[in-house]
Amino acid sequence: MELTMTSLRALLILFTLFLITACSSTGRNTQSGFLPDYTVLKPSDEYQDTQLYVSREFGKDALAKIKTLYLPRFEVWVNVKDTDFLNVNPQHIAKLSHYMQSEMVNKLNGHYTVVTEKPTQLDDTVLTIKGAFTDVEFEPIELGVRDFVPIRLVYNAGKSAYLAATEQTEALTHVSLESVFYVGSEKEPMVMMTAHKELDTLVKADGTENVKAVKEILDIWVNNFVTAMVKHRNSGHN
After folding, report:
1. What InterPro entries has UniProt attached to this entry (predicted)?
2. What pLDDT score does 12 carry?
3. Please, which residues have CB within 8 angstroms of residue 196's CB and are 6 or more apart in sequence?
4. pLDDT tens-digit map of 102-161
5. What total number of domains does the chain contain?
6. Residue 103 in contact with residue 222, Cβ under 8 Å?
7. What is the largest CA-CA distance in the chain?
8. Most confident segment among 15-29, 77-91, 147-161, 165-179
9. Which of 167, 172, 174 has its CA nearest to residue 144?
10. What 8-state DSSP symbol labels residue 135?
């Protein structure tokens, strides 16, 4: 059955974890191979750097039946790049995966039945949300053309001195996620999406704070996702 405008609006509330605007559009969306099909993804009309697919079968009636969220730990599908600039250790990303799962479970408990082990019975009351980190990267922020005005030059000179004194550097933190939703024991995905966000960050020049910088993005995603899930549950859009 086709989604009504009301049910589609309610459905989209579920995905604000991935849909916040952290920065200007980058056009970067990964295709790691984690999702079973990328050809059906369409750019979101409302949110930057997000591509989305929603099955026609995942409408108002299906949403109303969901009682349990099964949240396996996010997988790691990151190609480690050959760079000396704040490179992220794959083991650190694995820890970030555990961190994200734990935060989502802790904040959703009390509102939903949330499990991290596969339920013995998968029926239409269980929504499985699988995800993967598909890009975690840092790049230095260079002085841009728009910075070449006298006041901006003075500001950057002072900032450079401050960063040198505090052994910090200015970086652009990239994080990409891919996610797929399944209802019950269905093999066909009900929802698939990719999302990419980036934030300006000050980190230690030796890279010891790069995991902390990624957590800043994950915290925003988790908080918005949990808020949206609870709002959806209490909104009456069932």
Report:
1. DUF3313
2. 45
3. 26, 28, 29, 30, 49, 50, 135, 174, 175, 176
4. 998 998 887 789 999 999 999 999 999 999 988 888 888 776 665 666 676 677 778 888
5. 1
6. yes
7. 66
8. 165-179
9. 172
10. E
User: pTM of the prediction?
Assistant: 0.76
Cα dihedral across residues 118, 236, 189, 196: positive or negative: negative
pLDDT digits (tens, 9 = 90+) for 62-119: 777 888 999 999 998 877 666 677 777 778 888 889 999 999 899 888 778 999 999 9
Tell me which amino acid residue 87 is.
Answer: N
In a domain, 193, yes or no: yes
DSSP code of 109? Answer: B
Q: Is residue 101 part of a domain?
A: yes
DSSP for 153-196, written as a single string: HHHHHHHHHHHHHTTEEEEEEEEEEEEEEEETT-SS-SEEEEEE
26 found inside a domain: yes
| 113-115/75-76 β-pairing | unpaired
173 inside domain:
yes
User: How far is the first Cα of the chain from the last one, in angstroms, to the nearest whole number?
Assistant: 15
The pair of three-digit structure tokens given for residue 58, joined into one six-digit string: 């995942």
Helix, strand, coil content of the chain in percent (nearest 5): 35, 25, 40
Question: What pLDDT is recorded for position 144?
Answer: 64
Average per-residue pLDDT in the chain? 78
